[in-house]
Amino acid sequence: MELLSLLTLLLLAIASNEACQVQSSSSETTKDWWQTAQFYQIYPRSFKDSDGDGIGDLNGITSKLEYLKDLGVTAAWLSPIFKSPMVDFDYDISDFFDIQPEYGTLEDFRTLIKKAKELDLKIVLDFVPNHSSNESEWFLKSVKREKGYEDYYVWHDGKINSTTGKREPPTNWLQYFRGSAWEWNEVRQQFYLHQFAVQQPDLNYRNPLVVEQMKRVLRYWLNEGVSGFRSDALPPLFEVVPDGDGQFPDEVVSGATEDTEDRDYLTTTYIENQPETIDMFYGNRSTEGAHLPFKFNLITVMEQKGLSASNVQEVIDLWLKNIPAGRTPNWVLGNHDKRRAASRYGKEHMEGMNMLVMILPGVSVTYQGEEIGMTDGEISWEDTVDPWGCNSNPNIYEQYTRDPERTPFQWTGGTNAGFTNGSTTWLPLAADFILNDKC
Ligand code: GLC
């Protein structure tokens, strides 16, 4: 499945203390800050390195807050900054209450928040509810069936193949990053579900302890002064309820691709967009406040039909003519999962597209680097680090890898584009920078 269609259901939730009037507000006068905000997505690893290790960090972000202010940004959304083994570059969180050491410390985060407040900039964090890292304490305890953690994740005995007599995964379900969504755990002697990488076990939202724990996460960061959250990967939050014997149904072949490892090979009827997901998210409102569902048509429709004035008009009309009264439209050109806007639309169209999302009614979301028309990096198979790319092979990895849109921000025409004072960068810089540097 295209990650973009997955993302269309992601919601940006805004802190309740700042947005309590939002749900009924439709007139200009009662609009809350986020309803007309210019959001700016920071991919911390690639934004600005302050300590020369070639990896972006919190102090790097803090040093560039004035730049965001000058751009006219209202709120910066930070992709995850939490403790993580970095299999999926922090979308595999091992401690939801702590900062990844290579990004800095909680003190650095507090400094960032303080400086942002001084500049009247809001900070929004990424909330990753669907899964944790397999190195999280919760998962390690669940593996050992420690009291209170037995059902923190989706565990299953699997089934015995009547012909071979061997134990097999409970269903044919496929993960987003290619291959089976089930992994056998030797210690617990059960399979666990992972809709993303093997190292990203799915949390079990049918367990009230999990729901409460994740609300604690939200409250914790709200107390640290953040203004809201971008919620990650909501469609796979729930799976269908198993039958009376505890068995889940198989998905059927979708016909979309012949690649049997690709998630698109099967339907996702039982593993995405269950009714409980909506209820859960509305339930979170009491913790978080208002909601804004991302809309990606400026990406998806242009991909299918190409960029033209009439296609842009179609996308704008589609939303403005259908959005329920009082709701806030939002306009997104790109993100860390999608090829860079300048590479998709053409560099020459970036100023126009940037301007468009800023002047349309509602909210704009700019992915770092779009404002200077950054293009995709060319990342070889050997340099590929994104799990989606790595789970494929040298012949097809470019269809899957998200590394090209994640290359370091190009701040200057100097060494390493001014991204770091060190000698290396965690991903190679994009070729257009190298070209400019040589000129
Ligand atoms: C979302 C993120 C993506 C991540 C996935 C798993 O789709 O945008 O980067 O890999 O969730 O957390």
From TrEMBL:
It catalyses: Hydrolysis of terminal, non-reducing (1->4)-linked alpha-D-glucose residues with release of alpha-D-glucose. GO terms for biological process: carbohydrate metabolic process. Gene3D superfamilies: Glycosidases, Oligo-1,6-glucosidase, Domain 2. This is alpha-glucosidase. It comes from Drosophila sechellia. Belongs to the glycosyl hydrolase 13 family. InterPro entries: GH, GH13_cat_dom, O16G_dom_2. Residues 1-19 form the signal peptide. Keywords: Glycoprotein, Glycosidase, Hydrolase, Signal. Its EC number is 3.2.1.20. Residues 41-406 form the Glycosyl hydrolase family 13 catalytic domain. One of its GO terms (molecular function) is alpha-1,4-glucosidase activity. It is an enzyme of class 3 (hydrolase). The gene is Dsec\GM21039.
